[in-house]
Design a protein that fits this description.
single chain, 636 residues, alpha/beta, Heat Shock Protein 90, 4 domains, six-stranded mixed β-sheet, five-stranded mixed β-sheet, 22 helices, elongated
Amino acid sequence: MGLWRTVSYWGTNKTENLHQLRNVVLTNRVSILIACFTFLLSILSILSFGFIYSSQLALLFSFIFILPLFINRAGFLFAGRILLSVVLSIASLVTSILDKFDYFLLEEFQYFEFRLTLLAATLFPFILFKLEENKYWISALAINFLCLILYDPAHELFGVGYYQMGLTGPNYYFLNYMVATTFFVIAGSAYFIKRSFEKSENENQSLIETLHQANTRLKQQSQLLQAKQQELIQANNLIEKQREMIALENTQLAEEILEKNKQLMETNTELVNHNNDLQQFSYTISHNLRGPVASIAGLLSLIDPAELGPNNLPLIEHFKNSFTSLDNTIKDLSNIIDIRNKVTRIRQKLNLAEEVEHLKTLLKREIEDNDVLISESFDHAPEIYSVKIMIHSILYNLISNAIKYRHPDKVCHINISSFQEDNFIKLIIEDNGIGIDMDRFGDKVFSLYKRFHTHIEGKGLGLFLVKLQTETMGGRIEVKSAPNQGSTFSVYLKIPENIGEQLIFENDVAKVYYDASTESLCCIWQRTHSAEEFEQVLSLSLDFLKAYRTPNWISDIRKVPMRKEDELNEIRAKYSQEYLKLGVKRIAVIMNSEEYTINDLKQKQEQIKNAYPISYTFFESSKNAYDWIKNQINQE
């Protein structure tokens, strides 16, 4: 192993390039291997066939194959690789021609065997050269290809061609096409493998250099830290004394931050869940399952019971019942997903002054600590119908950003106003902070994880969320800003066309929608229903109330006059406490008194009132119920 390593590294002292050093070692070792195997082959040939031309040439070329070793040792590193890249092809062609002069031993196989070594030589240029050394490996590859293409012409030139020697294979020349094709397949494959290898190698080298630089920086930082260690030791005593005080302050601060951000985190989490997982699942239910189920329904309709015989009728009936159950289950699942998706699209009436006041409470600590002055002007558009959680998030991000990026030499002043422009409510949030260089960063202001003031802590997420939420609601956002001149954000929120009947859930059992003008959750019962169906509607309504805290509830039971309210109250009892916690103030029940006797009507109303300890009022029409709720709201 010592001799093998010594010979392998001949010529490596002539270069300091790591890649070239590796190629020199590779050239030396390949040269040794080819020379050894050729020498072994010549010995076997002499023992098998005597000292014929091909045996003599094999012995000669075994010494020629060792020449790159000595060329590399002499310092001619490229010459050694070029020689090794082409010598096998040339040796194979020469040996093949001279081998045919031993015509008394001539066999047809002798015209095929040397083509194998010619094809093997195709790999050498890719093994020994980098792709960027294209003038060397392309030249070597071209020489190898010429040896392959001129194989038959060279034999015929010396009078030892395939047909000249009396062989009669009719498709012999077609072999040239197959060999040429094989050459290109081998060369192409080797090229792409080499390119992939070099790409990975370059990436690894780049990573190594990056890590080396990082390691150097770490060492420098370590030395700096050691130099300051004495200072830190002296400061440790003071830090230790203040630690408990800092921990206490951090705990109080963390509690305040958690309280302020709780609602934002909940709404953002709900938004992400609804817009991703539930919409994808809804799509799967609606498209991937409804199609096959509809096909089964069509096939069932084609079955003629008379043709099946009496023995098969129970089986078919059972199959139809199972199918109906499956169909209903899929519909129910689709409805559940639809209700959760629609909750985030519901517009409700929002008072902008109240929303800003709520945000000022959340940001009270920041406002007081930094003497922030917030002025408001909502006279031109005091209210807006929109998604509460998104409006809250938009205002929170823009106001908190204005405080965070305030000018150090000015009193932080934030002005918030609203106007109506065409079909939009325009919110303007203006500050006198440090501003943004729009010439440099104008196209990246709303990009994800983009920050423009690295001296202030942040994640570059707020403005991205503001733009995303504004566009989700059909609006847009614009910004005007300049360094040290403050920023003005204009948020255009589209005025919704329909706020009176925003559908949440609908099937043949019930229709549930939200009326933003009266802040009412409305449920119209469509048909007689089971306890399970009633509980499903109740549960879905609760999901909506959790998100929107709607104080009013309208229930229209005119189409289900005979349902048993006492039995349904057992189900209502499961959700009673939750409804009360969510702030439901009043319930309007619409029922047709003509469907009951006087006693039955009173009994029915008493049963309904027993459901929840909430104010109930009964009406004959939807209009009367809506008017009553509007009147109650105005009185408040």
